[in-house]
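General statements about sequence and structure are easier to judge against a single worked case. For one protein, we set the task of working out the structure tokens from the amino acid sequence alone. The sequence in question and its structure tokens are set out directly beneath this paragraph.
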Amino acid sequence: MAKYSILKSFYASEVWQNFRLVVIGERGLRCEHCGKYVLKSSELTLHHIIELTPENVGDANIALNPDNIMVVHHECHNQIHGRFGYQFEQGVYIVYGPPLAGHDEYVSAHMSRGDIVVDMDKLFAAVSLLPSYDKPNGLLSNVRAVHNILIDNIKTRYGKWRSAWVIGGYAEKRKRERLAEDLGAELIFCDVSREECYNRLSVDEQRKHRQDEWRGYIDKWFEQYQP
């Protein structure tokens, strides 16, 4: 329960109360989630876009940053957090493209705390404790089994995740479109040229001893890619 007392103390602080009044005073008595106006400021709350946690509550760039704040009324706030009878709007996204196209960076920039991310590279790292670029073939069947379970969880909307992000190459059009249909997912293409992938590989310190191997992965993707 200690973690909740840390956040409770922050929200009760004079610094937060003053910050709240300033933000609402600047933006007015309108919910930025649904657009409705309210009669008094007590009907509004400030929602942190990057969710506040005991680990980041001391970071003013998160806790007291107006760019990380939405002014919302209490009902919308409950809806955003999926509580008190509200359900999360569970979006599903397949982020695909060639190796080193920036899939992880895209997902990190768009996901929220509480989302589920399915990435073969990260699953390899999770079961082997090796760097994500080092994927022993002997573990492939185990990693695929875990991957398939998570994909089934997304398909059946099992769990209380917010949005789901599936990361992969998915060069073959038929396979990625079938997966998108099965999951009810939106396809997001990381459109990066072969030369740009080579350039990123050339300055990647983690893969400096595996240049030929990863150039092969890049070439294979572009040979198989179907727009």
Remarks:
- The chain is about 45% helix and 10% strand.
- Residues 92-224 form a domain with the Rossmann fold fold (CATH 3.40.50.300).
